[in-house]
Design goal:
333 residues; globular; 11 helices; single chain; four-stranded mixed β-sheet; alpha+beta
Length: 333
Amino acid sequence: MATMPDKTAKKITAWYEAKTETHREHLGASLIGHHCDRYLWLTFRWADTPQFSGRLRRLFDTGKREEPRVYKELRAIGVELHTEDDGKQIECRDLMGHFGGSVDGIGKGFVEGPNTWAVLEIKTSNDKSFSDLRNQGVKRCKPQHFAQMQTYMGLMKLGYAMYICVNKNTDDLYSEWVAYDENEFVGITIKSSMIVTSSRPKPRISDDPANWLCKMCDMHALCHQEKVSEFNCRTCVNATPVEDGKWMCEMQKKHLSADEQRTGCDSHMFIPDLVPAAEAIDANEAHIEYLDKRSGKTFKNGNGAVLSRDFEAGRAKVLGVSAKVPFDDEIPF
């Protein structure tokens, strides 16, 4: 009888792929070192949800499974390690409450500083990346990881971090004792505040869709292919981040829970920068009027006009054009 390879493997991969992504409520320290401020703003505003393959999701899970193993190893060599606070990951946030993250642990007893409490950060990498890390160090080779640790150290008032990376190909370990850098943290604080408080997205790092940094980005379709942003409160002109990590609806004059933010309402009006191929030409409390650059016609977005939850179909109906306009710009990849 002929063999039928990979059927079970494919079903497992499909199971991972079927998992739904949930937007993070805060701007994460793990992302703040990203090279594109626009990407950070779009992520914080829940403008789009990255789509990952089942294989990639399983790879993420592999990285998380290394953490308990490293915890065990560190405790075995005498490190006093704390990984939870009241049964949850140890969290830290900035004063406004919208920026921060969860540390892998806080420890004391590392060889490099036996009497010093330090942040613990655990990562995994492939063989090439691991080699680069060993040769160049975390600041140069992994700037996002470096910024993440500087954020944790600054917010938690700690002077050092222990960075441990596991080579997924060989199981080799790399460790680096990272010192707190006040200038780095101040720069990160300014950057995160700018992202959180801005009502509009930052400029693209390039207007060329074939730019190598852009074409590898999760937000490529949103920035370069005229994809419509997701419908939720954070993509609405009426939503504002306020103190204590909360969001205020200026239309309803109330704080919005995370569930309410995800659901949205019929009064939703897209932030104009998130409406593709159109220019805002007028606005009032109920709607924003746009000039469609492709047809030369106008349409309105808001209550009593094109509802954001039905944006593509509603806009197409008003303009008398196809709901899906194909992206036909040449991209050499």
